[in-house]
């Protein structure tokens, strides 16, 4: 039996759907399960909710969106519970190798080390930047994209491809024991290229002006720095590394991400 955590989130839900579609025995782990469904309560912040008895494979979708100490404590709880309850294989969704300069890299790398030093068999899926997130960070104003991506190119990937890759690994974990996959694109795209394709101007602002805007936007205290680290990493060439790992796992070419990025960008124009 396979357990997928974060199953109400976008990535976790897509992994569960893929596995269920292939008639794999899967249970959705979520903080707020719907009664009477194939769901199980799983909240990494509450060790008492972590009972993995009977699950051979657990797909741990990272639970970010918090300060490092909070994320690390969450992930410690989930790995310790998997060890205690006799899980055979833990699959963890991490961040791309090229993402070491991202503000949330430390918690991911800590978690990878914790898993690799555990008693479990494991597979680390180093997920690249979502095409959906890249599109949302382009945020045009009056037909102009000012996001501070400079001339940097990014090897973005669609969330659906990453979900499919995770489901493939979870369905046959014995083929992926103690492997690290760098699931970034096999090509790159840039903010300027996407803006041009969408018929918009691209005039990248400075990191400082974007930080000032983010500081005033009501985000949680840790969020502006994390978002800035995405812009800065991309602008300075740290998210441009391509690999063939994703295509190799999928057994096909990864989805071309441009249309997904443009769709998200165009939605923001409509909303603005
Ligand atoms: N590669 C990228 O570009 C990128 C971008 C953004 C985030 N991420 C990371 O990838 C993860 C999955 O992405 P996503 O798009 O699915 O994000 P999402 O839609 O925001 O879903 C995140 C899910 O994480 C789960 N979660 C949060 N706190 C938790 C806790 N204390 N215990 C257990 N689960 C918890 C929740 O699942 P339930 O609601 O089911 O409890 C939540 O819905 C994120 O959590 C983040 O760590 C990656």
UniProtKB/TrEMBL annotation:
Pfam families: NAD_binding_10. Residues 6-170 form the NAD(P)-binding domain. InterPro entries: NAD(P)-bd_dom, NAD(P)-bd_dom_sf, NmrA-type_oxidoreductase. This is NAD-dependent epimerase/dehydratase family protein. It comes from Cryobacterium suzukii.
